[in-house]
Amino acid sequence: MHRISAPPLLLLLRRLAVLWLAAPLAAPWAADMTLILDDTAQQYGEFAAQLRSVNAASHRLTQGRVDILPLDSLRQLDAQAAAPRSGPDDSDSVLAGVRTRSARGSMLPDAGPPASPPQPVRAEGSDPGVLVAVGPKAARAVVQRAGNEPILLALLGRLEYEELRALPALRRPERAIGVLLRDPAAAEQLSLIDAVLPGKRRVGVVTAPQAEPLMRDLASAALAWPAQHPSRGGRPWAIAAADAPDANALTSALQAVVPASDALLVLPDPVGSTSAAALALLQSAATANLPVFATSEAMVRAGALAALVPGNAQLAEQAHALTVRLRQSPPGPPVVEAPRRLTVRTNPHVARRLGLALPPDDALTAAVARRD
User: Fold this and answer.
1) Is residue 152 in a domain?
2) Which of 41, 235, 245, 257 has the fewest CB neighbours in a 10 Å radius?
3) Three-state SS for 267?
4) Total tally of structural domains belonging to the chain
5) Domain of 253: which CATH number?
6) In what order do the strands lie in the sheet with 177-181?
7) pTM (predicted TM-score)
């Protein structure tokens, strides 16, 4: 048996280490994905960090690259890509003036002095991977941008997506497009009400005129409930709905809905997202001793009984899975997904006031996720 001497073995290990460290540079500045953050970048910072972490973990040793840019950088990229380049010595790139970090760097561009040597900027003609637009403004800009790379529109409200559907790029897509909504599906909302109030089937909803798509989804989910959930009782849901096109109509709409309801459901529409309207709805429900169900943790803190909320870590995992699918998908109608993993948040003070003994939040989360 031959023995390998120590010096040649050490030399081999050093060469392998050099090759491993150089591997990510073999395709210069190719990215798994490029995140374009909305102008309100801080709102989406945690999601961006989680998505970067999920992508890195999926690559194990090679550390997949994720570039994270503000929306202004996309506009600058488009403007400079169309402009003639002076040559390699002008020190200007398609992201001139914007310093970015890789998947191992900081999450957002930093205008301050660098703590370490700046990363190279993206070279012209490099592969951005999947373009991930985070937020409604970024989604509109990315959808209307020329190109054939796949795109994912992430963290859109259902109504925000409905506004984008009129754009030609979504009606006649020339590339693979995915949409990850942040609002829970209507069927999941009914499952939450059933888990908290078993057997109650009268739900009141006060909506803005723009909420028609949400109401269609709710009516469809209510109609399909008996067949999809036979073990939870075959009684159909009764939806009592009234429009509130402005603040003056809110009081009369609530007066029509409250007496015909076992609970109120706040949809993610202008009524539910306007502080004054949401507060008036919560006050009316408290006066009538009715529980309120919502789609945001803020509403639970303000006085709603319970809400279904997606976590950033779960949304990031779902977004990453979508980017993997989009890389292999041909152009076609957008693939639209609602959050698949949701968490129940409850307000124990409101529960006590209503005389309800609620299970722990994790038990309710499991009950909502249970399938017949």
Assistant:
1) yes
2) 235
3) coil
4) 2
5) 3.40.50.2300
6) 66-70, 33-37, 130-134, 151-156, 177-181, 335-337
7) 0.77
